[in-house]
Amino acid sequence: MAKGLIVCFALALVVGVAWALRPVRTSGPVTPSEAWLAAERHARRVTAVAWCLLVPVPLLALLLVTPYLQALAVGALTAALPLLAGTAFVAVHVVGEVTWPRPAGAVRRAPLVRRRLADLAPRALSVLTGAWTLLLVLLLVVCGAAAGTGGRSLSYAHADGTTSTASPFPGWYYGRLVVGALVVLLVGCLAALVLVARRAAVADTDPVDDVALRRTSARRVLSGVQLVVGATLAGCLFFAANVVRVVEPRWADALGAGSAETVAAVAAVIAIGIGVTALVVAVRGARATLRPASAHVEQTPAAQAAA
C-alpha cells in the first residue's frame, strides 16, 4: 500500500510540475496606450519584489531574533513563518496599489465603473485559498483539543498502562500564533484586493483591457496567499501525522484496530500533496502574463517605440 501511494504521488508530482510550466497567458490590448504600458510594467515590478521578499526577509528576521528567544518560542515562530512571509508579500502589493500610476496629461479619459471583488478575483483561486484556510483552522482546533498540557505535545494512555508522548504537535501553543498570523495575512490580502478593484482606471484603455490587468493583479496576489496558507497547512498536518504515528492513540484507528500508523502515513502523503499543489498553483499564478488580444486604441509613438 505504501509503495502504491508513493508511485501515485510521484506521478501526480510529475503531472503537476508539467502543468505548472506550460505557457500561461491572459488577454491584453494589441495597441496599448502609454498609460497601459506604464501600468503593466508597474504591476510586474510589484509582483517581482513581492516574490523576492517572500522567503529571504522572514528567514533573515528569524535568524536575527533567534538568539533572543527560547527554543520553544523559536519553534512557534517557525510554525508561523510562512504566514508571516505571506504578510510581507501582500504588504508589497498593498504598497504597489497605493503607488499605482495615476492618469496624467491635460486631457485624460477613463471609464467610471464600479467593480466588485467577485468580478476580479479568480473563482478557483478564491475557493482554493478559502479551502486551505478552513482546513488549517479545523486542523488547529482538533489538534488544540487533543494536545496535552502545554499545547505542544500529544499523550495517550494505552490499555497496558503505558503512556506515549511525542512532540512537536500543532496544539494551542503553536496554533495561537499561527491563527494570529493567518488573520493578519487574510486582512492584508483583502486590503490588496480591494485596492486592486478601486484603483484608478488606466487612461486611454478599453475597459475590457483594464479589467484584464486587474484580474491579473488579483491572480498574482491570491497565488502567493494560497501558497503560504497551503504550506502552513501541509506543515501542521505532516507534524501532526508524525506524532500520531509515534503515539498511536486508539482514536486514530480509523481503519480498524492498530491502523493508526497507516492513517498517519496517509495523512503525511496528503500533507506533501497539499504542499506540492499549493506550489504548482503559485507558479502558475506568478507566471501569468498579458498578451495581445485585440486592438482597441490608436498606437501612440511611445507604444510604437516600445514595440
Automatic annotation (TrEMBL):
<keyword id="KW-0472">Membrane</keyword>
<feature type="transmembrane region" description="Helical">
    <location>
        <begin position="124"/>
        <end position="147"/>
    </location>
</feature>
<feature type="transmembrane region" description="Helical">
    <location>
        <begin position="263"/>
        <end position="283"/>
    </location>
</feature>
<feature type="transmembrane region" description="Helical">
    <location>
        <begin position="221"/>
        <end position="243"/>
    </location>
</feature>
<feature type="transmembrane region" description="Helical">
    <location>
        <begin position="173"/>
        <end position="196"/>
    </location>
</feature>
<keyword id="KW-0812">Transmembrane</keyword>
<keyword id="KW-1133">Transmembrane helix</keyword>
<feature type="transmembrane region" description="Helical">
    <location>
        <begin position="68"/>
        <end position="92"/>
    </location>
</feature>
<protein>
    <submittedName>
        <fullName>Uncharacterized protein</fullName>
    </submittedName>
</protein>
